[in-house]
Predict the 3D structure of the following.
Amino acid sequence: MSSTIGTLFRVTTFGESHGLGVGAVVDGCPPRLALDESDLQPQLDRRRPGQSDLATPRREADRVAILSGVENGRTLGTPIALLVRNRDARPGDYGSMARIPRPSHADYTYLRKYGIHAASGGGRSSARETIGRVAAGAIAEKVLRLAYGVELTAWVSAAGEVEAPDRTADPPARAEIDRHPMRGPDPESAERMAAAVAAAREARDSIGGVVTCVARGLPPGWGEPVFEKLEAALGQALLSLPAAKGFEIGSGFAGARLRGSEHNDAFAAGAPGTLATAANRSGGVQGGISNGQPVVFRVAFKPPATIGRPQATVDLDGRPVTLEAAGRHDPCVVPRAVPIVETMAALVLLDSALRQEARDAIAGRIAEHGA
Amino acid sequence: MSSTIGTLFRVTTFGESHGLGVGAVVDGCPPRLALDESDLQPQLDRRRPGQSDLATPRREADRVAILSGVENGRTLGTPIALLVRNRDARPGDYGSMARIPRPSHADYTYLRKYGIHAASGGGRSSARETIGRVAAGAIAEKVLRLAYGVELTAWVSAAGEVEAPDRTADPPARAEIDRHPMRGPDPESAERMAAAVAAAREARDSIGGVVTCVARGLPPGWGEPVFEKLEAALGQALLSLPAAKGFEIGSGFAGARLRGSEHNDAFAAGAPGTLATAANRSGGVQGGISNGQPVVFRVAFKPPATIGRPQATVDLDGRPVTLEAAGRHDPCVVPRAVPIVETMAALVLLDSALRQEARDAIAGRIAEHGA
Amino acid sequence: MSSTIGTLFRVTTFGESHGLGVGAVVDGCPPRLALDESDLQPQLDRRRPGQSDLATPRREADRVAILSGVENGRTLGTPIALLVRNRDARPGDYGSMARIPRPSHADYTYLRKYGIHAASGGGRSSARETIGRVAAGAIAEKVLRLAYGVELTAWVSAAGEVEAPDRTADPPARAEIDRHPMRGPDPESAERMAAAVAAAREARDSIGGVVTCVARGLPPGWGEPVFEKLEAALGQALLSLPAAKGFEIGSGFAGARLRGSEHNDAFAAGAPGTLATAANRSGGVQGGISNGQPVVFRVAFKPPATIGRPQATVDLDGRPVTLEAAGRHDPCVVPRAVPIVETMAALVLLDSALRQEARDAIAGRIAEHGA
Amino acid sequence: MSSTIGTLFRVTTFGESHGLGVGAVVDGCPPRLALDESDLQPQLDRRRPGQSDLATPRREADRVAILSGVENGRTLGTPIALLVRNRDARPGDYGSMARIPRPSHADYTYLRKYGIHAASGGGRSSARETIGRVAAGAIAEKVLRLAYGVELTAWVSAAGEVEAPDRTADPPARAEIDRHPMRGPDPESAERMAAAVAAAREARDSIGGVVTCVARGLPPGWGEPVFEKLEAALGQALLSLPAAKGFEIGSGFAGARLRGSEHNDAFAAGAPGTLATAANRSGGVQGGISNGQPVVFRVAFKPPATIGRPQATVDLDGRPVTLEAAGRHDPCVVPRAVPIVETMAALVLLDSALRQEARDAIAGRIAEHGA
């Protein structure tokens, strides 16, 4: 397992879908930060199942408890342990699947990797694992906002074959995004997406989608060449999400079709002492380092593998069977993925920021005292 | 900087485009492996500039020397230091750019991050930095081939607007790919791609492209949930390449448009004791773990930022200037990116393999001796 | 903070002395291991305060709960979260110290490092932080025992000026050690140590001591040159314990006084295919790698800083004050340090073992299939 | 192998005693630092063999070359590759030992770990491996001096049974230390140590010794609880040196004999805004964090294992043999260990400093802009 991410702001998650609970330990949080559970709960609530009839009916309050690292409402700089207890775990729901690995789920691969598999549900591969990430990432979001004014906004830019208009140059506010349960960038396309989800659910099927995220307010200089370039670190973080199949920054795959003269972001005068770029096909990153423009990326999520329709597959002995899924699942994960994408990106950005702070501080000292 | 990648097979790269040399230190290479420079040179030769008139005319023999870790043609298990000396460095070529950050290059961001920038060329952000990666990855490729029979094959699947037919289900051999300097999967599309590159060069412009890679022969069980899932680790590695803007595994962004019933990979009986999947929209990975099917991914590269056409931009003081690039550069990087993609993937796969070996070995011991 | 240790068997601890609880997340535990709380409780009980009148009267049942990673009594290979709730926290006890940093405690340094300090008790610097280590290390001990037959035994070899006879060549069993609350290696010296502790307590003072540890059953080959040599990794782990001031392996500081001809461990024929050494001044390690002999090391612990005697010191403003400690503390920590030393060593040994398993496995595959 | 140390200032070493060369890659060096080879050579010269007849007669100029990361005498913030070529390698010297593992050397353990061993000399376990450490650490020393005014001084405080007077409260200057080839703290004891070394050499034997190191000028706040406490990180770094058998900080093992009332470092008013301590039995560290007092530690080195006297041992088949060593070796390593100890400590201190800079910077931003 590799359940830890980050170098200076380091998050370790734990927990399976049907055990006692899920959570995270956040090591390296800045000290003296005002923090309590109310800072974490909003993003957990946005991630929570059962928010609308677009999502799984599993009911979980998902109330987070801070077990350590905070005293009298201030962080101590010590590890912050976060715990969300599982309440509505129903192991029985999955009993019949023990011998039938679900297609495009992780049942088979976990069994082959570990020689054992959680008896019910997705275990560690469940989307429930993301709770620890979201709780931890909500702390990172707060730090980024207070220390740098960085704001992250994600939304559903596509669901199935429905694509929303591009809003990367003019990102909607979170409140605006949350106005519709699809979390699309505008009411009209959100409504069409919702119809696509409803049609899939009706057909006992599921659909995939794309989440677009924009981070504004980064100063130039974040991102660590060469293996932890900002886009590489973001790519790792986002591709580690359940069901993620693709990641692109800035122009992405479409950019590969362009010519250099079309793609290059010419510089323009920026705020005093800085340069801006006329366009932002770079997605806010050049050479793996933030350039001061908004960081823009997109994440593709496949359709949820659990569907109500019968599937012809084989059991662990290779014998043909027809699988009909029980359990409670989302016909479309992307609305709930929105806060997960935001918080995962926040983890990466804060870690990059801290590393650059160390560099800036020491280089400044050398310049001041040194040769 | 973050110039190290990997946990058990760990590679640290160094070097700028116009310094004394570039290279890598490989820590964790298995001992007793037959190894000498001739194992590394072929992939370096495929990466080398000046192979055809499709690429930069910079002339570098790029001969690698093994400085440590190998004795009498066998690895000792100790760090293998690899060095390629720069020969055709011409710092003067870039002198005029000192005050004009090149659009969509890393000049500006390096300057803002480090407060200093290599006086000439891309410095650390140059594609020359990938030499160390390729040399190190060639070792990983050899280990993967000998120990597991894993074979990696990449090719140019798109250049500009030209797309090659899909060959992921039936990957061409390396020799076949190398038959045409475009490294496309078939002669006809390669020719059309080459025409697109030629047209761009003619226009003193550049074009982007896509590299597709298939890794065959992986057993089930590689990849470390949750933050180093195989697709996350591959995504980080590939997105850390210069000019990379997107990564997708299996169905990728196209998969987001599908329904679950269309996307799911039903299981079928496989080799004794294993299951296969009928289709491979998962790209060989489920829940972040290899399932025994070929691992299939694609990487999008933007068009090279250096173009001969004049560009309207600003200098570091924000004053409008017209930039006309000198220096020697590729109109299209993707043919040379092919070995880089293969070797970067090899680094990730071998690291994942080693981690799974440790798990398997100890679990086996417990089962044998333990409760 | 840096609350994570280990590369493949990775432990992250959390918790302060007077918060909601303390614990750890263990990532990389082998799957399919039989495990429940009863495997962890014995070492926690040996570490627990209030075992005898030699130790602090603070009462804590210190019952551990496994929150994740185990199902139906078997590990899943996923992170194991361990939690011990604090029950007998009495923040009020320490209120008067807010402005007076306790001499040789971490109050002042935590305040200078973090700009904030837990309002009561030692916070993160409390010996209570070691609970997570012990719980995690007890898992490592079980794996080492089942997979390799490795047994770790530690005891109090000195308390204050009382030294016990050397038992490193013939280590006592745990049951024998636990027969006396001092955890000395023999009844007679244990009794003299206990008298020294009693005298210190009588004088409202404290005394230090030394814990000796022997690990038997390691095969040759564990330990990762050069920066994680076995003695370096053990040294880090043991010196990270509260109050630890020194670490030595094998002959240690005394060895520095010897000549090479006196110090060298000549080889002798060992079990078939192996060599033994006549003496063991190397402490089971040569060149940072286990040689198959028992690993022997010693850890020095300073006397507890909290004493009942009045101390002349200054407050945070530099004004002279006389400090009289309240709170409940051990006059001598070394008996309770015994299980902590054993479990910390187990963490290091298991991590080293796993890394060597990966190396052996892949080198074996190459030899089998390869050139 | 684990040839990398550090989190933000990260050093990777490579090279065997009789290969092409040894060196290091330094990642995370602050940018814009004035640096060239002349900054590194003095400590390499102090480490070099053949400085006096107290040391091995092997002749190596040990001239370091900077291959990357520096341009026009300034660091770029990119990896600095350092290479020292081996010149006086004489593999033949060791040929006769192939089947006889040298007692208390790493021949046997390397063979068991890797299944292969460098054909001559110590290979990776040779003291020659420390060249990369020293070159890298010399950079760290320069940064610490310029940025913080931190000065490290080490000396030989014991050789064999000869102990020098304690100078930890009043450390000698480097020039003073280098006045005598023994690098003792005063001429009289240095002379007695030299006599002990001469007597050992005369007897074709060797002796061990102790190096004491003091780092002055650290601000309070360096060191990362809990697993990378300053003494734990220093302990790891120093115990990773060839022949190191013990490490103690402050009072060390002697402190274990004291009572708390004798051991505690009462606070006293310090420079404005800080506290000092009257004594320094803590060795400058409390709770794993620097307290602003000098950091004081000692490292025990065993006598070199290579001696000219015949040794009764066994060969790899367990057959009794008498070994008479050839090769060129030091009768006493500690004078040459002095710069190694200083530079290793510098690596640890700078890494700790950088991590604290990141914390301070972000906490400052939050306090400024935040709640």
Q: What stands out?
A: The interface with chain C takes residues 1-4, 10, 12-16, 19-23, 25, 27-28, 31-32, 65-69, 71-72, 74-81, 83, 113-119, 123-124 of chain A (CB under 8 Å). The first strand of chain A starts at residue 4 and ends at 5. The mean pLDDT of chain A is 93.
